[in-house]
Specification:
- The chain is built from twelve helices and no strands.
- The protein has two domains: 124 residues, Serine Threonine Protein Phosphatase 5, Tetratricopeptide repeat; 94 residues, Serine Threonine Protein Phosphatase 5, Tetratricopeptide repeat (Alpha Horseshoe), CATH 1.25.40.
- The two termini are 32 Å apart.
Length: 220
């Protein structure tokens, strides 16, 4: 169990490259605005997102706590806010890593995070951002927690959402999703489907690190 939790240090590392670019500047601005309107749902969500993204980039426990507090407050105001659920759930998985010296607490946080992310998808199954975040998170969770089928479900859903609306996610996020889809399919032995996903990465975002890694997978 402890070894598996340690692996969580790498969970969503790639995700940081997508959404953390402007988080630092946003946090300071959002904190000032929240002082004036502390129960503004839009500001709470933006603040929670920014803390989430920068927390993963820096592995900063204080940012995890700030994001947790803001998103929990938002859910108290809007219990059905799916975006708040999925970001808070993702933060819980990082809190689990911070609790690696207490395996029981880490497992409890993981399960809480999974439950929140699953509820988010049930609430908004056609939301590309929510599918993306849960999918990438689930794809990188150690296999012993049984999240691989969840990841594949999200990536299949994203494939359909992207086909219907190519602008539902930024290109780099789409490329990342197809890369992890390919990785997940390789684990299940579906090589042909995995190679198709890797080729999609190259088509969508050919200059990204994910495309480079996808080409390496295809050349094996």
């Amino acid at each position: 169990m402890k070894k598996a939790v340690l692996v969580l240090a790498a969970v969503l590392t790639a995700f940081l490259l997508v959404f953390a670019l402007n988080a630092a500047g946003q946090i300071e601005d959002l904190e000032a605005r929240l002082k004036k309107t502390p129960d503004n749902p839009a500001l709470l969500l933006d603040y929670g997102r920014a803390c989430h993204d920068l927390a993963f980039e820096r592995n900063d426990a204080s940012l995890i706590e700030k994001g947790d507090k803001a998103l929990s407050r938002l859910l108290a105001l809007e219990p059905k806010n799916a975006a708040a659920m999925v970001y808070l759930g993702s933060l819980k998985t990082q809190l689990a890593n911070a609790s690696k010296d207490n395996p029981e607490a880490a497992l409890e946080l993981l399960q809480e995070g999974f439950t929140l992310m699953d509820k988010a998808v049930l609430t908004a199954p056609d939301n590309a951002e929510i599918r993306f975040l849960r999918g990438v998170n689930s794809a990188q969770i150690p296999d012993m927690f049984g999240r691989l089928p969840v990841a594949l479900e999200d990536f299949q859903a994203l494939d359909g959402l992207i086909a219907e609306n190519p602008s539902c996610l930024p290109r780099y996020a789409q490329g990342m999703a197809y890369f992890y889809m390919g990785e997940a399919l390789m684990k299940t032995g579906e090589r042909a489907a995995a190679e198709k996903a890797f080729r999609r990465v190259v088509e969508i975002d050919p200059k990204s690190p994910f495309a480079e890694n996808a080409l390496k997978r295809l050349s094996r």
